Amino acid sequence: MEKLKRAAVERAVTEYVESGMVVGLGTGSTASYAVRRLGELLASGDLEDVRGVPTSSRTATLAEEVGIPLVALSEARPRLTIDGADEVGPRLALIKGRGGALLREKIVAHASDDGLLVVADESKLAESLGEGPLPVEVEPFGWEITLKALASLGCEPKLRMNDTGRPYVTDGGHYTADCLFSSIPDPAALEGEVKSIPGALECGLFVALARAAVIGSSDGTEVIAAPERHGVNG
């Protein structure tokens, strides 16, 4: 699958990133390939004056290592954001956040003029979202009550722990609840229900944010456009 990810990243960066762009840089293994590829193209001179808005400290560190100049979201609005996804469902509804940066990923994607360009391999395609857990970023204060409220929505929530057995803490200082649903037939409705719970700061359902997905498969790469668009720049 790594070969398929790399092929999808190559097509996404080549076709959609232009010199002079500000690009939102996602978090996770697929996004790291994109960051490295952007760094290579800047170093070779094939791209010039590309700046990045990182969605996590991990991404910021990698971007600096490969020579991508960084700007804060308050300084420049991204043209588009390149990021991976945990699940890609119908109409390009997504589950993201298993890498631990969903809140900042959603903020940057929402701020991007052309939205989110998803890069993934074919294993991430899902007929219906909910094949794996839905991450929810939660306020540490009262997290036990927040998880009980999440359970009332029909899931099994579990607080994410780090390697030392302590709660995993995001860059923003929050906890993450991984919520396993039997299925998610209406992602937009569930997103609203989750975010109506005090203490549930944001969830990993990305609905109507992706403008296109570049998918790597054994048959090559394909671009899936969002229903209302013909491409990221359409």
Description:
The protein is an alpha/beta fold. It folds into two domains: 2-125 and 207-223, 3-Layer(aba) Sandwich (Rossmann fold), CATH 3.40.50.1360; 134-199, Alpha-Beta Plaits (2-Layer Sandwich), CATH 3.30.70. It has six helices and 13 strands. The strands form three sheets. It has a six-stranded mixed beta sheet with strand order 2-1-3-6-12-13, with helices on both faces. Strand 4 (87-88) and strand 5 (94-95) form a beta hairpin. Helix 1 (2-16) crosses helix 2. The two termini are 29 Å apart.
Could you name the CATH class of the largest domain? Alpha Beta
If strands are numbered along the chain, what order do they take across the biggest sheet? 2-1-3-6-12-13
CATH architecture of the largest domain: 3-Layer(aba) Sandwich
Helix percent reads 25-40%
Beta-strand residue fraction: 15-25%
- Cα-based radius of gyration, to the nearest Å: 17 Å
Class per helix and strand makeup: alpha/beta
What count of helical segments does DSSP give?
6
How many runs of DSSP E, i.e. beta strands?
A: 13
Task: Provide a concise account of the structure shown.
The protein has 234 residues and is of the alpha/beta class. It is built from six helices and 13 strands.
